[in-house]
């Protein structure tokens, strides 16, 4: 695989994102695109984002729950990059014009208090690196038409990253059972889906361990101060104009995103 091909694919995906035009999955034309090359494309999209002034602030996990895996027809989690350009300030409406076909999902978010590097990270050692736990809502958006993709496609597309907003309560991870933490998704005040943290790899700390080990294999360390979005607890719902979507977490409060 040539560097040129990887650079071209990354530039094309960012161009779709910037111009809000979706397209066919890379694997339609490139059926043997493997995961290592897909991550190289993802890393190249990050290099391009950094070149235009964005800063890495953490990572996101995708497809950590069965609800998401079933819907997307992909049966493995993945990791991707979060930059400061993806932060939606608390209380602001989602900028619908920046997205192609945004969808919203409730997630548990970690703020790391110390560096974390795989291999060999377990749910317990992962939790030891967590400083704060918060609720969050992620707005995902795919550069592929109708969200049709296979695992290498969605890896290359930075796991459908869009924007995210953090919740009102930050708690220490000590003494909370995050497997039991509820997350319910409401559209215009009506509950449309519910789950608990156990939906995310059995426990969100297990998802964090996956991220540390997966990134560790590729030579990356999760840094103190980084945010980690652990993945949608429920299936995502479309974010439409004049609707309000809320995620209600048990001890982590309520996160509202209007559009
Ligand atoms: C893939 C990205 C998934 C999550 O939390 O599972 C993701 C997608 O559903 O388009 O952010
Ligand atoms: Mg997500």
Automatic annotation (TrEMBL):
Any one GO MF annotation of this record: 2-oxopent-4-enoate hydratase activity
Record-annotated Fumarylacetoacetase-like C-terminal domain positions: 79-254
Superkingdom, natural source: Bacteria
Pfam family, one: FAA_hydrolase
Keyword annotations of the record: Lyase
Any one of the GO CC terms: cytoplasm
InterPro entries: Fumarylacetoacetase-like_C (IPR011234), Fumarylacetoacetase_C_sf (IPR036663), Hydratase-Decarb/MhpD_sf (IPR050772)
Entry protein name: 4-oxalocrotonate decarboxylase
Organism field: Streptomyces glebosus
């Amino acid at each position: 695989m040539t560097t040129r091909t990887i650079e071209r694919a990354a530039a094309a995906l960012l161009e779709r994102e910037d111009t809000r035009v979706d397209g066919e999955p890379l694997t339609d034309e490139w059926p043997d695109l493997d995961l290592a090359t897909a991550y190289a494309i993802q890393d190249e999209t990050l290099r391009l984002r950094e070149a235009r002034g964005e800063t890495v602030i953490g990572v996101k996990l995708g497809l950590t729950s069965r609800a998401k895996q079933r819907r997307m027809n992909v049966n493995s989690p993945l990791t991707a990059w979060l930059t400061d350009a993806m932060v939606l300030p608390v209380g602001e409406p989602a900028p619908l014009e920046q997205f192609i076909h945004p969808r919203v999902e409730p997630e548990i978010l970690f703020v790391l208090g110390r560096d974390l590097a795989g291999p060999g990270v377990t749910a317990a050692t992962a939790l030891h690196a967590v400083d704060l736990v918060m609720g969050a809502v992620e707005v995902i958006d795919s550069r592929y038409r109708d969200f049709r993709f296979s695992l290498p496609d969605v890896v290359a597309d930075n796991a459908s990253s869009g924007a995210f907003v953090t919740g009102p309560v930050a708690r220490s991870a000590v003494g909370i059972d995050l497997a039991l933490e509820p997350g319910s998704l409401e559209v215009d005040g009506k509950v449309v889906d519910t789950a608990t943290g156990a939906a995310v790899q059995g426990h969100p700390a297990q998802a964090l361990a996956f991220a540390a080990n997966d990134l560790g294999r590729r030579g990356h360390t999760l840094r103190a101060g980084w945010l980690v979005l652990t993945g949608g607890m429920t299936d995502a719902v479309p974010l439409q104009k004049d609707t309000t979507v809320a995620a209600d977490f048990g001890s982590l409060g309520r996160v509202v995103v209007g559009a």
